[in-house]
Write a structure and sequence with these properties.
273 residues; alpha/beta; UDP-N-acetylmuramoyl-L-alanine:D-glutamate ligase; globular
Amino acid sequence: MTLVVIGPVTNDLVVIGKESSNKVGGATYFQSFVFEEFYEDYLAIVNCSSMDLTDDFPDSNKVRVILKDETHYFINNYPFEDNLNVRTQLSNFANIPILKSDLENILPETIDAFIINPLNRHDFPKETIDYIKSFEVPIFMSVQGFLRVPKDKVNENYTIGLEGFDELASILDGVSSIFLDEAEAIIIGDDFNVDEMVITDGSNGSRIISNTELKIDAVKCDELCDTTGCGDTYMAAYISQKLLSKSSETAGNFASLIASRKIESFGPYNYDK
């Protein structure tokens, strides 16, 4: 089964306490490390302004780049080294949409599922979402990016706010699973035509809502090092198991374990650890 994972790759600045480092980021980037270990038949499609950003992917042969004029930039600031659940973010809110015409010539002939990873509302116009839906295969979607809006400007970047919007219901319509956190779930509610909602809440675990609700406990970490990309890692681990026909409970427990392991080291999930 060929899985197509679409969304921006980013230039990130990660600040933990007084230490800072520049990193490659973006949901599609973090997820590729999980799929490389647990679901190798995937293709990552990213939008950015530099081919060099794909050098850090686990297998650059599985990456296709849609070149744009800008690259998403994020500052992830964790002010308390002993509490990585607290984070502030800034972004340049790059306006580099992934268009239907961008995808038409680079998608593989056989597609069994899509993952859609917007980082802001510009990334996936409604026309692109409708085109992806036309393949009539399962779609797994991160909601957070659709809710992000720029707030106060700080130097060249903006603080990030979260707001719902009227078109979101039609974007989510018919999606297999949506992924979001508890704060985002409060904003959008639950009146959507989706098969499943997967709601994460950091060290408090996660909830999986379909016909019933499952509570998934977080797996305790031996050491908290880096939570950036933890939600993306959880999402990829969960999807890898669902595509292997595992139950939602099994997939959720597996995702919780893999997310915990990711937090124990810096950067993306380290499958050689």
